[in-house]
Every structure is written in C-alpha cells, then in structure tokens.
Task: structure prediction
Amino acid sequence: MLPRKTRTTAPTAAEADAWAEVLVRRRLLHTALPVPTGQWLVQATPASPVRVLDGPAVVELAARIQLHARTSKARIR
Result:
C-alpha cells in the first residue's frame, strides 16, 4: 500500500459538503447535515446517536471510512 500523503491545506466547507453528500449517497452514513454554526450533525444509522463534528471534520471522517473500507477489503483477499 502506498504511503498516505499529508494535507498541506485545511479542508474547506465546500469540500466537507461534497464528502458528506458522497457518504450519504453511498450509504456509508445515514445523514450528515451542516448547521449554521459551521458544525455538522452526523448519524451512522437511523438508530445510532447523532454526533456533532466541528467544522469540516466530515473530511477526516470520510478518510477514516475509506481507510477502514480499504483495510477490510485487504483482509478479505
């Protein structure tokens, strides 16, 4: 596996919005809603608790979900 590149800039609100949409569309999250304070309300499943993420932390969440998916696939092979 190639080493992960580190970011040189902070994630933007637009990037967080795009990733949230992808995660919900791909059903990796039940919902991800931005609130006026700049935070996000995120729920993994309809029955799971709602998590509050600061700022564009949705981008970090997307990276963790991708890493988990990749490592799970590698174990299956």
Observations:
- Residues 57-76 form the longest helix (20 residues).
